[in-house]
Amino acid sequence: MKNEKARADGGQKSRQIRWLKFLNSLKESMPSIFSVGGVIVFWEILVRFFEIPSYILPSPSESVLAIVQYWSAIKSNMLTTLYEIGVGFGATVIISIPIATLISYSRVFEKTLYPFMVFLQLIPKVAIGPLFVVWFGFGSMPKILMVFLLSFFPLLMDTVAGLKSLNGRLYYMARTMSESEWKFYWKIKLPNALPSIFSGLKTSISMATVGAVVAEFLGSDSGLGYLLLRANGDINTKLLFAILIVLCLMGMVFFEIVELAERKLIPWHVSQRVTDKKAR
Amino acid sequence: MLRFEHIGMKYKTLTGYTEALIDVNFDINDGEFVTVLGPSGCGKSTFLFIGTGLTQPTSGKVLLDGKEITKPVKEVGFVFQDHLLLEWRTVLNNIMIQGEFRNLDKNITKVKAMELIRQVGLEGFENKYPWELSGGMQQRVSICRALVHEPQLLMMDEPYGALDALTREQMRVDLEKMWMQKKNTILFVTHDIDEAILLADKVVILTPRPGRVKEIVPVDLPRPRNMAVKESGEFLALRKRITEIFTEMGILNED
Ligand SMILES: Nc1ncnc2c1ncn2[C@@H]1O[C@H](COP(=O)(O)OP(=O)(O)OP(=O)(O)O)[C@@H](O)[C@H]1O
Ligand SMILES: [Mg+2]
Question: In this structure, what are the phi and psi dihedrals at residue A218, rounded to the nearest 5 degrees?
């Protein structure tokens, strides 16, 4: 009985804390809410006041309504794009971390790979897009490849930097305890690189979205990029803006997922990060 | 027994070489407590790295029980000068990593770790992260990590550098007590002349860089060395002698 009461109190307390945290984060994001809200209101007023036709510039409210209006088209094409991003970005994560590991261990390997990395980094990916269409047709393959190409390098570079930025004395410390290179990598080198890896993931996931849309532009029969081109061709500017909003929201959700994983995996780093408040 | 034979160490630098050690010779017997005194930059840390096979000397060799050391020695506990705690691990888990790397029984290691945490006065901090601790507290955690597997050989590189005088005294007394029980071999680097005398069976004094052995001073004070010892004539005489050696080397100036 007493126990139950205690638990109930505990529950209430944690709910209270959560509520306070929510209010606090609301307070923190007030400036953003006002600036973004202000721009939206200004845009709405501008369009209405000057009676700008919606094929030139639809108002925010029209654009949002267009999302509802065209939802079934948007949804099915969004699933295509999500699939391409998912597979391409997944490949990036799975492939770049092991390659970064090899680079961090072997100078020969690094030197061997380096020319290709520079070459692939410098080449305008959009320019080779049409080639992908020739090679792989209109299916999802060329899109996945483009997503991969664009998102691969940011993650690779940051992971290499993270793996290399290790206090050399930590290697000494590990050596006094065990010869196992694997233990050193798994328990010291990799966790030490996680903050860098996460900053790479954030750049990478933004590039992934860009890659998917660009590849769809270059030749496809579905996906948000394809729908965007169609809307443009039909001078359906409302739909075009609706798609842009959806793309932005998608990007924000991806980013948030990475940030969430970051908070869960490396709380020591997140909580130590110099916040604006501390720095001031 | 750990024997250093004609150890020389030259570090390659961008502009040439830094000679850290020249022809260092001496022995540490099993169960002996040896302290190393020397001015900053004379090669004390380098010396400990060489003594455990972490760095290979550019000349001479180190023998552990008659066998030349060619790779890192495992039967060692090493307190590094910079605490080297892992920021993603709590105090307890920073100590436990010793057991994880050595595949020791987790439960036993944990019991020992908790006992050490208590001894160094960090009870209640076992689940804190390194950045939540003061420099002195971090240093104490790093000492626990070096002791938790009860190594036969213990290398301590200025382990009390970040501690206040009182904690330092307490840690010294505790270390002596532990050593008197376990009789492990300890090589202890310090800047503090009193500390060097009070802990040691013998004090090795190094010259300014490049470091050579200036003198080895045997210390024959009765143990455990308490406050009374600090006021004894023998202690004061030893301190005077070592201070004179430093003055002679031009490290201490009296005016
Ligand atoms: N990795 C290195 N590369 C080049 N030079 C080095 C390296 N490590 C140490 N040295 C040089 O060797 C000399 C001895 O360094 P060491 O760290 O052993 O000194 P120390 O006696 O431990 O000094 P302190 O008391 O300040 O810790 C120094 O002059 C230093 O500049
Ligand atoms: Mg040193």
Answer: -75, -10
